[in-house]
Amino acid sequence: MTRNIIAILRGIIPTEAEAVSAALIEAGITRIEVPLNSPDALDSIRIMAQAHGAQAQIGAGTVLSVQEVTHVAQAGGRFIVSPNTDPRVIVATKSAGLQSWPGVMTPTECLAALKNGADGLKLFPAALVGPEGLKALRPILPPGTQVYPTGGAGPDNFARWVAASADGFGLCSALYVPGRSNADIATRAKEVVSAYDAAL
């Protein structure tokens, strides 16, 4: 069973990429994002895509330019996440055949992202919007719009976000920080999955 969770591996290095992604996949987290401001991020994406591309979707985060979209596609990435709403990046992402998850915070950004072809919305930083903010946004969004709170959502508040209509989550430090052991990552991933399943 797959979960609507995107694991954000900010700071991961290529030598960790295969083992860390394997631990996440084993726990049931099958969408994995490598932010491009991580060391040699494209190499990590390539390694993960080659090792686990049949079992998981590997993508990139902190994508800020059309050129970066091209590089991610060439590395085998299948989705693009940004902290902002840039129509050029969204259009380039869709033209490359990848999923687009731009960062949004306001109604204007939400609707602009969807108008330009976004597959889903990264509500960021979720801590500033909160579940009540998502409830307020939902009536102006087209039915079926996927919204993933990121940066303020985690196992301790999954239930509140789900009650506010969150469709999934982007998780960073709850799963991975540089230097964390594979065993710790595996344990945390299982705990996150258990909390997610309980919230649903």
From TrEMBL:
One GO molecular-function entry: 2-dehydro-3-deoxy-6-phosphogalactonate aldolase activity
**Keywords per UniProt:** Carbohydrate metabolism, Lyase
The enzyme's E.C. designation: 4.1.2.21
Domain of life, per UniProt, equals: Bacteria
Q: Does the keyword Lyase apply?
A: yes
Q: Which NCBIfam families match?
A: PRK09140.1
Which proteins does it associate with, and in what oligomeric form? Homotrimer.
Which protein are we looking at?
2-dehydro-3-deoxy-6-phosphogalactonate aldolase
